[in-house]
């Protein structure tokens, strides 16, 4: 933005000069007399203090006082120079560069409008002075933010580099012979965008039929199949259109049986009632049967009567996870009955779109052991860096507005869990995902090649990134779009149509032109400074040969009154009109005010009929969908060399790349394509020939091929789910009096040998299991039977030394009593969740009037081990295999010790605690009072080295448990929900008001949460995250009706009353 071309800035500068004019005489006088400068400074200081008092700013802050002093000194120095230069000082000399080069003019403009509306000279001068102060203050603030940001980025770069170096110590460098085909530099890359490895089989329609179930997740925005409200708000845009079309296209691909697109259910009166419908069919194949096809499934989460923007959805993500899990389990059962002989049909892949859905997909992937794919669409860390560079908002302001740190952590978790990350361009991989702790391009390549060669990756993992451009529907492209007829065959020189009716938008555009038959240069974008339309217009206006050869069509959104538009598009459009006037482009440039979305194809057709060119001159273009659309109508393209167009034009081979900052490069490229008709025709034919690379069928084949290649995780065959009609066992069968059952267990014992109740129950379960086994031999069964409700006790009751207190026994006793009164015996099950080891847990239980056999399951070591007391304390080996995903094992033991310590701590301050460790949990004992890294910092450092795991401080921060990525107390509850066939909403979790560092994960979701105050003396949460990280309110919906607080008295009758308040009956 140049000051000379911005009217209000000109006025602002002139006004400041005028305001300083009254001081000219005094300046001259002082310059003509010795000591004038010092007298002026004193006078200025006195005058400033007087003005401050007069305007009620006597108690102004240090910034304003410093501004006054700086202004006085600058003026004094300037006055001393006027004797030789004969120039008068202007306050603008101190501020103008900051105004013109550093700030969005919107804030200043509002102040300026107030200034020019002031008629009183003195008041006007005071306002101008205040405006100057504001600019100066903003400049200092911006510089401070920029400095802090630069320091933070430098520290992070150093940490990332150290992490990569640590990884390199374990992983040898690749020789040229070990490099994988397709890993060449961009200049050496293959012509096509997608990279298909030689050992990867392309998805073929000729293969035997598959019955795949695919789950897509797009959580935010307004999602429906027809009449999509694109552009209604920032949450309902291209992503919504993409996921709906992807669901339809996948469902139409041979081998795919069903596609579910999960999104949030909204019953708010603010939006259409369609968004409150639980299910919407998107497509149903003609030869389909049963539940096949594509569907939108709307999952309730958060307040149902509110439309919540994506920045405020974060606390409700656990609810969405639980609702989605219930739906997938039910669908797996139903599809299994239809197509899989009664065995559950688990999703082939779960694909999360955007950060929120990425976190949902990661949690579901962990709960079901199903492969996960992630598409970021736009990335939080990239946005965060851009906002910091602008300098208008501090780190804290950005986070409070956009919840950006919560979003970034969700994206990092998505990287932890994903088998594959889908991007539109290579630029997105290198310049955006490359910013994340959990991804490094070079390290990912090394690990991938080592896996292919069967070489150990030393416990390190990176998701595979693949470039798969968005698919497009070209069914609307007609045969006439491929014809080579020009505009003269349709309209005469007098603009009258020749026996055909022209689209209305053609007439609207052609009315701008003196000669509509000239080739048209078409630019189509929103009026955004980043789209760089003004540079294009300057290039056109300053190149006479181009003006003589072509017209220009600018489609810049829709407008009624520019002055009523928001600042950014208003400024762009105003500059466009000024440039048209400056270069006298009337009759050569069309800039219609309105167009419909349905008219966009006709706009492309018009440019093609004139044998014109499409141009995308954006400073950076993440993808460039319009380039593909233009190619479908036979338009060659000129496009920015920054971003997605590089890959698109490489695949289409139908245009030229340019530097968007270089006006001459832009005009040269346009002239080359327009003047050389042979080149134009060649580019046209190439574009029409190659657009099939971007069609939905090609996209789906590529997508499924890549998923099949990366898919090395499968649901455990023993992750069965009870059928709906299954008869209950265990406690729920205590009243069974079937004599055949009685005889079958009594026949093995001598008469007179009485069995106690527990032994009789155990034998009864084993007998039923034996009878139900087809082979007649007992099968492994980890289910205690059908329960109406599960009570999960997860209160972390420790004293300052990390020892269990008596509160835990009292809580267990009272919960057992209250649950029995509420539901009756046999209908309630009980689970104990703890960060302690099994031996420590059993020792704590023995200290009180509680038996381990009272529990259906005991989950120890922060969710990494699961035991069944009613099965002789048998460990669930299926669960151990279930949580093994990306577990680094022995490779992480020494690395944790190295990274957890603060530099100046001694080696014995943190040591491995072997008594509590297991195959899936490494426990470390921490000396009281030492400095140790918090969970978020330690996890970041491990991610930078390629390690994926879960970290939990427990036992009043005296113990660190390092467990597999998806071993957690919350995920253990979801596992039991699936295995035992209990809806998560039927779980009641009892916790204290603080606890281990995984405490927050236990609060959100569909389960009921009872928080008992005063029972936890010392928690570990001080070691959870740094102060400048995300906040608890971004994670926990404390206003949820599923959360209830109980004061320090927690007798059985109080717990019973609390359960009644939660609706547990």
TrEMBL record:
Source species, domain of life: Eukaryota
A GO biological-process term: sucrose biosynthetic process
UniProt GO MF annotations: sucrose-phosphate synthase activity
Boundaries of every Glycosyl transferase family domain copy: 515-688
Residue runs in coiled coils: none
Biased amino acid composition, Basic and acidic residues: 158-167
Domain Glycosyltransferase subfamily 4-like N-terminal: 237-430
Keywords: Glycosyltransferase, Transferase
Reaction(s) catalysed by this chain's protein: beta-D-fructose 6-phosphate + UDP-alpha-D-glucose = sucrose 6(F)-phosphate + UDP + H(+)
Domain Sucrose phosphatase-like: 828-997
Xref: Gene3D superfamilies: 3.90.1070.10, Glycogen Phosphorylase B, HAD superfamily/HAD-like
Sequence segments annotated as region (Disordered): 158-196
Enzyme nomenclature, EC number: 2.4.1.14
CDD domains: GT4_sucrose_synthase, HAD_SPS
Pathway where it operates: Glycan biosynthesis; sucrose biosynthesis; sucrose from D-fructose 6-phosphate and UDP-alpha-D-glucose: step 1/2
Summary of subunit composition and partner proteins: Homodimer or homotetramer.
Family statement drawn from the similarity comment of this UniProt entry: Belongs to the glycosyltransferase 1 family.
Function recorded in the entry: Plays a role in photosynthetic sucrose synthesis by catalyzing the rate-limiting step of sucrose biosynthesis from UDP-glucose and fructose- 6-phosphate. Involved in the regulation of carbon partitioning in the leaves of plants. May regulate the synthesis of sucrose and therefore play a major role as a limiting factor in the export of photoassimilates out of the leaf. Plays a role for sucrose availability that is essential for plant growth and fiber elongation.
Name of protein: Sucrose-phosphate synthase
